[in-house]
Amino acid sequence: MSGMDLLWLVPAAPLVGFLILFVLHDYLPKTVAAVVGAGSVGVSALAALLVGIDYYEAGAEPTWQLLWTWMSVAGFDPAIRLYLDGLSLAMTGVITGVGFLIHVYATGYMWNDHEEPEGFARFFAYMNLFVFAMLMLVLGDNLLVLFLGWEGVGLCSYLLIGFYHQDPANGYAARKAFVVTRVGDTFMALGLFLMFRELGTIEIQESLTLANAQWSGGDTTMALIIGLLLLGGAVGKSAQVPLQTWLPDAMAGPTPVSALIHAATMVTAGVYLIARMHDIFLISPEAQLAVAVVGLVTLFIASFTALVQTDIKRVLAFSTMSQIGYMFFALGVGAWSAAIFHLMTHAFFKALLFLSAGSVILALHHEQDIFKMGGLWRKLPIPFASMLIGSICLAALPFTSGFFSKDVIMLTAFEHESHGLVFWGGAAIAAFMTALYTTRMMIVVFFGGQRTEAHDSSRLNMWGPLLVLCALSLLGGWFGFGVVAGVLPDGGLSEFSHFSPVAIITMLMPFLGIFVGWLVFGRRIIDVEALAASKAGNALKRFFFGGWGFDWLYDNAVVRPVMWAARINKGDIVDWIYRITVAVTRGAHHVGSLTQSGRLRWYAANMAFGLALFFLIVLGVIG
Amino acid sequence: MPVAVPIEHVLALAGLLFLLGLIGVLVRRNVMFLLMSLEVMMNAAGLAFVAAGARWGAPDGQIMFMFILALAAAEVAVALGIVVQLARRFESLDVDNADEMYG
C-alpha cells in the first residue's frame, strides 16, 4: 500500500478523536481522554509523516485524493477532495507535528486544572476538532472546503478562548475574537463569491489557472478587488492591522490553546490563504503591495506594544502578531517560500515559548504578571532553558531557525523594486525591537530577585515536548525550504551574500537589541521606571500599552453606537408587525368562540335562523 | 268517492305543525318536551311527503314516511339514553344544565 493513500487518515483521526471525546466526555476517565485526545493527533502526525515521505519519493508531484462528492446540483458539484502539494504538506506537517507536541503537553498542563476540573475531556474534544478543521482548511481542494475549515477553526478558537466560562471576562474575550474575525470572514466570503462569479469554478487550482488566463496582462481591476477581499479575510484571521485587537484578549484561553491556535496554526491561516492564492496577487501588484504594507505596519505596531506589556502571555501575543506581520511582509515583497518557511520556524519557536511560559505560569500557580516573577532560572531550569532557546530564535540570532527565515525576508525586501530601503529599514527596526522586548521579558522573568514562590511539578509529558520543540527551533532552519520549493513562484530561496553591508546590518540588529535590552533592563543604566513616570513617557507608555488606541477607537466607533442602538430598540420595532398579527388573530378567536356557548337550544336557534335566511334568499325576498 | 282535500291545505297544515314543533324545540328547556317537539316536526315532514305522494299518485311519498318512522324510532332509542344520563348527572331534565362543552 502506498503511503499516499493514508492522506484521508490525517484529518480523519482527529475527527474520530473529537467524536469519541465529545459524545463520551462525561464517562471517560481522564487517562483515556488524554490517550484519545493526544493519540488521535499522534496518529494523524504519523500518517502525515508517511504521506510526506511517499510524496517526496514519488517526485514531489501534486496529487489529489477524492473522498466523495459533497453535493451535485445542476452542474455544480463540489467534491470533498484532498489536495497535496509542498505547501499543504508543510502546513499539515506543522499542524499535526507541533499540534501533537502541544496535545501531549496539554495532558500535563490541564491534568489538575483549577478552574475547570470537569472539563478535561471537553478541552481535548475541542482541540481535536480544531486540528481536524485546520487540516481541512489546508488540504481542501476547493474554496468551499477551505471555507468550511476556515469557519471551523474560528468556532474552535471561540470555544477554547472561552473555555474558562465561569468568568464573564473570558466569554467577552471569546465573543470579541469571534466577532472581529467574522468581519474579516465577511470580506473573504465576498472575495470567494466574486471569484466564483467571475471564474465560474470553486476548484482552487482551476480558478488560479483561469485567473491567469483571463486577467494576466489585461485589466487587473478584478484581481485587485478579489485580492483585497481575500486580504481582508487573512487580516482578520491572522490578527493583522486593522483587525488585530482580538488576539491579545484571546490569551484568556488555556496556555496550550494559545500555543496551538493563537501562535502556531490558526493565526497563520491568513498567510496560507494568500500563499495558496498567490496567482491573484501576482496578477495585481497593487494587492501584493497592500499585503506588504499591512505586514510592515503590524509588525511595527505590535513590536512596540510588546515592549510595555506586563502579562507574559500578552507579550507573546503581540510578538506573535508581529511575527505574522513578518510573514505578510514576506508575501508582499515576493519572498513566498520564505513566508511559509518563517511560518514553520515561528510555529516551532513560538509554540516553545508559549509552552515554557505555560510551565512558568503553572509553577507560579497561575501568575501571569512578569513583574511578580523574577529570578526563576534556578528554580525552573527546564522552562528557563527552553524559553531562552525560544527567545534567541525569536530574536533571530545567527544559526537558529528564526535567523534563516527572517534573514531571507529582510534581504528580499531590500531588493524590492520600488520601496526596498523603506521596507528593509522598517523591518530592521522591528527586528531590533523584537530582540529588545524579548530581552526585557527574559530578564524580568528569570533574573533579579525572586518575588513569588515557584513549584515545578512538570513531568515527562510536559518537558518532553519542550525538549523536542527546543531541538526543532534550533535545528529547524537547517532543513530549509526544500519542503515548500516548487509550489510558490520564487521556487525556493534565492542565494544572498551574507557579507554585503545590508546583510551584516541585518544580522547585527538582534545583537544590538539584546545589548540595549541588557543595558536598560539588566544593568539599568537608564531608570526605566522614572522615564515611564514622566508625563510624556507615561502618555507614550499608555499609548503603546493599549495597542496604539485601536481598542479605544473600535469601542467608541463601533461597540458603543451599536450598544446604544440596541438599548434604544429594546422593544424591537420590527417585531410590532408580528405582534399586531398575533393580536388580530387572538381577537378573532375570542369573537368566534363566543358563538360556541355549549347550549343546545342556541345552536338549534342558529340553525333555524340560517334556514329561514336561506329560504328568504331562495324566494327572492332579500338579496 | 271521497272528497279530495286540496294540497295547499295539507301543506299549510304541515308547515304549521313544523313551525309549532320548531318553536317547541327553541323555547322548551325540559328535554322530554324537546323530544316531543322534534317528533311533531318529523311528522309534519311526513305529512308533507304523504300529501305530495297522493297529489301525483306515486308511492314514493309513503315510502319516505316509512323511513321517517324508522328514523324516529332510532332517534327515540338514542334520545332516551341521553335523557337517562341527563337525569343521573344533573338530577334535572333541563338541557341548559348541559352547556359545559363550549369555546
The largest sheet of chain A has its strands arranged as 1-2
Gyration radius of chain B, in Å: 17 Å
Which percent bin holds the helix content of chain B? Answer: over 70%
DSSP strand count of chain B: 0
**Basic shape of chain B:** elongated
Would you list the SSEs of chain A in sequence order as H and E?
A: HHEEHHHHHHHHHHHHHHHHHHHHHHH
Please state the CA-atom Rg of chain A, rounded to the nearest Å: 29 Å
The largest β sheet of chain A comes out as: 2 strands, antiparallel
The number of strands of chain A is 2
Oligomer: heterodimer
How far apart are the termini of chain A? 90 Å
Mean pLDDT, all residues of chain B = 89
Number of helices of chain A: 25
Q: For the report, how would you describe the main beta sheet of chain B? A: none
Uncertain segments of chain A: none
What is the H/E string of chain B?
HHH
| Most residues in contact, chain pair and counts | A-B, 10 and 13 residues
Helix residue percentage of chain A: over 70%
- Note the gap between the termini of chain B: 60 Å
Structure description:
The complex is a heterodimer of chains A (623) and B (103). Chain A has 623 residues and is mainly alpha-helical. Helices cover 70% and strands 2% of the residues of chain A. A two-stranded antiparallel ribbon of chain A has the order 1-2. In chain A, helix 15 runs antiparallel to helix 19 and helix 16 (381-394) runs antiparallel to helix 18. Chain A is globular and about 115 Å long. Chain B has 103 residues and is mostly helical. Chain B has helices at residues 7-27, 31-56, 60-90. In chain B, helix 1 (7-27) runs antiparallel to helix 2 (31-56) and helix 2 packs antiparallel against helix 3 (60-90). Chain B is elongated. The N and C termini of chain B lie far apart (60 Å). The mean pLDDT of chain B is 89. Classes of the chains: A mainly alpha (623), B mainly alpha (103). The interface between A and B is small, with 10 and 13 residues.
